[in-house]
């Protein structure tokens, strides 16, 4: 068990839905329409992807690097009788250009002194590296490729990560940002940023 996992109360190899997951799912349900093609990157337990598929009628693909997360997302979708495709992959690498109307991401964002071990799946799910941006920055660099021209990226950003720095990176990659959801806690403020091309 890692210190990061202890901070979030995790006792599994798969990130389970928490306040950040609920915030992203709520924002996504409001933004996504019936028939939209949606990718949920880093799906963890599949909560966000399953909620979007169930409540919007969108065609949802869930992806995660963690094989345990992929298995659990499939199981949860089957139990809820929700149509969900699950793909094991790193960020958006497995997907074709322009494939999605919306891309959702709740990235690992807790700042950590060391890089997460690849065999410690909970550390991978939580650790954003030294700055908290070690995963969200490569995501922002790559997500434009798989996004349809009029598509939207909904990314959860924590104040622990540096919201201004994340938005500056998104802007450098050709996106305008709008805060569409926000919740504050004693230790952080969470926002969902909607990123669109101008």
Question: Can you describe this structure?
Answer:
This protein is globular. Helix 2 runs parallel beside helix 3. It is 35% helix and 25% strand. The chain has a 7-stranded mixed beta sheet with strand order 3-2-1-4-5-7-6, with helices on both faces. It contains 7 helices and 7 strands; from the N terminus they run H-H-E-H-E-H-E-E-H-H-E-H-E-E. The chain has helices spanning 3-8, 19-31, 47-56, 67-80, 121-126, 136-146, 163-172; strands spanning 37-41, 59-64, 85-88, 100-105, 147-158, 176-184, 189-196. The chain has one domain: Vaccinia Virus protein VP39 (Rossmann fold). The chain is α/β, with parallel strands linked by helices and 198 residues long.
Ends apart, CA distance between termini: 44 Å
Lateral arrangement of strands in the main beta sheet: 3-2-1-4-5-7-6
In total, how many domains does the architecture comprise?
1
CATH T-level topology = Rossmann fold
Mean pLDDT: 87
Radius of gyration: 15 Å
The proportion of strand residues reads 25-35%
CATH class: Alpha Beta
CATH architecture grouping = 3-Layer(aba) Sandwich
Structural class, please?
Answer: alpha/beta
The helix/strand series, from N terminus to C terminus, equals: HHEHEHEEHHEHEE
Strand tally? 7
What is the count of helical runs? Answer: 7
Biggest sheet overview:
7 strands, mixed
**Which bin fits the share of residues in helices?**
25-40%
Regions with little confidence, pLDDT below 50 for 5+ residues = 1-11
CATH superfamily: Vaccinia Virus protein VP39
* Bulk shape: globular
